[in-house]
Amino acid sequence: MSGSVLAVDIGGTKFAVALVGREGEILRVRRTATPPGGDAHTLWRTLDSLIDALLTEPAEIEGVGVGCGGPMTWPEGEVSPINMPGWRAFPLRARLAERFPGVPVRVHNDAVCLAVAEHWRGAGRGSENMLGMVVSTGVGGGLVLGGRLIDGGSGNAGHVGHVVVEPGGPVCGCGARGCLEAVARGPALAAWALGRGWQPGSAVRDVPDGEAAPYVEAATASGRQLALDAAAGDRLALAAMDRAGRALGLAVAAAVNLCDLDLVTVGGGLSQAGRLLFDPLEATLGEHTRMGFARRARVVPAALGQDAGLVGAAALVLAESRYWSH
Amino acid sequence: MSGSVLAVDIGGTKFAVALVGREGEILRVRRTATPPGGDAHTLWRTLDSLIDALLTEPAEIEGVGVGCGGPMTWPEGEVSPINMPGWRAFPLRARLAERFPGVPVRVHNDAVCLAVAEHWRGAGRGSENMLGMVVSTGVGGGLVLGGRLIDGGSGNAGHVGHVVVEPGGPVCGCGARGCLEAVARGPALAAWALGRGWQPGSAVRDVPDGEAAPYVEAATASGRQLALDAAAGDRLALAAMDRAGRALGLAVAAAVNLCDLDLVTVGGGLSQAGRLLFDPLEATLGEHTRMGFARRARVVPAALGQDAGLVGAAALVLAESRYWSH
């Protein structure tokens, strides 16, 4: 198995590692649950062992690409994932570079990797100017402009979740008021609906089905339940989807007008709601993209499933001319 | 005079042409008033004659850079400036290319040229990730990311004036509601203050002084008068500046969070209000850029004066590796 890249996807619920071929195909993959409450050493050992389990045969590794929850220093790759308190300024890139000397080891934000994956091999193929979004327990994204990943000054470009959509609105995890994420992330939407009398599951019960729904690991049960109830016609769940769609529409419009985008892809648990989310999103986007150039922008569901993070991480190495600037 | 570039700045009130040297220095300049209500032929003759008046000595023109009001097709350079009805789909680039065969002729949005000028030779020097804004009769801008001008899919990146800052707010010229431009452009602010009882000039009279204040040609008397009255302590004029500053702060925060910017430059008539505008702008920006990476972004006044448009237009040719992608 020569000429492949090791891809690593570090999330709050799951670690995944894979060997990825030149065209982005997953050759072999291993997953494990993130050790809850693990300290820095435990988390590293879990990852290190998972890589051992993947590399049971000799493999020529040409490079390592990593997607990890933020914040992090970039391109240094010292990570402090919000939902993994055991890693604070953990030198993830350096540790992987020790294990894989002589090849590039590149770490980027997990939402950025999802956007890269959609651009490289998913719903964004052929677009030169797109925003790839993920709407789940948080709202993140990545920007591709002029056919290249935009990093911004500190590797943090794409934080569309912190565009203000409701001035004076609910407080966000970041401390500001009225961010898109504060309104449209699954738990916030569920709380909003509960506060108005929503009875979760009264329309239809969410039974985990064991199937690998796209990004399912990042979706909250409450957000999924809300989407299911909305699909079953629950009035409050529908109102919550409308609220999320309108908030997303305002933030997407800001990105389209500011960056002259062709395309926006939306993935993550909440996007599973389909037209119930995309209809109000597109209506609001249409109201706020009235100039000729902005009208062409389309919003589509993300196309890749649970392997998207791995594909995007691999692209940091396999398609570096487009996705790695440093 | 060998090795210089012809720069052209086409505005609703004024045409300017200049010979610009390699470092962005203006070697010679000619200006004339835009013929009011001029048809396509009259407008072209005015520009053509102005170039004649500039090129009285033989000059080796290495290229032509043009800034013009939008909209336009890009990079084709067929222009339809909103405030010059005589030009609709006028082939400005093609006509200049006929006059200057064999050298590059490049046309871009006037607000983009101002941003390029600030990045190349003004307040944005050294920043790799900036938004250059102009707040005047309209609100426009240009984006530089990773050290390069971002064009977007149709040459329209930088339209920060159409980020929504007041959902359900006033109707914008573009047809949408609550755009930054609908709130913060000079005439909108003046109308807002007048509707609340502002008596223009009761605090201090705006006497045109003939001095070349930066971007003065683009500022409206009403916006300038508002700034003067605010400086003199007029309560309603101050409230208008506060309103503009807060709206600008929300849109700038969206750009900073989405694009991970180091710097935002603000020019145009309204920026003459100084601290009265920048204080509420910075306060609002601070409230909405709470993540570590976003806190570093600074907002500064544009540094270049009335020649900025010419300097930016020249840079499309003189510094093409950074400012011309096509």
Describe this structure in words.
2 copies of one chain form a homodimer. Chain A is built from 10 helices and 13 strands. Chain A is of the alpha/beta class. Chain A has 2 domains: 127 residues, ATPase, nucleotide binding domain (Nucleotidyltransferase, domain 5); 176 residues, Nucleotidyltransferase, domain 5 (2-Layer Sandwich). In chain A, the strands form 3 sheets. In chain A, strands 3-2-1-4-8 form a 5-stranded mixed β-sheet, sandwiched between helices. A 5-stranded mixed β-sheet of chain A has the order 11-10-9-12-13, sandwiched between helices. Chain A has a 3-stranded antiparallel β-sheet with strand order 5-6-7. The radius of gyration of chain A is 19 Å and the shape is globular. About 3% of the residues of chain A have low confidence. At the A-B interface, helix 7 of A face helix 7 of B. Chains A, B: This is Glucokinase.
In short:
2 copies of one chain form a homodimer. Chain A is α/β, with parallel strands linked by helices and 326 residues long.
Which features would summarize this protein structure in a list?
homodimer; Nucleotidyltransferase, domain 5; 5-stranded mixed beta sheet; globular; 35% helix
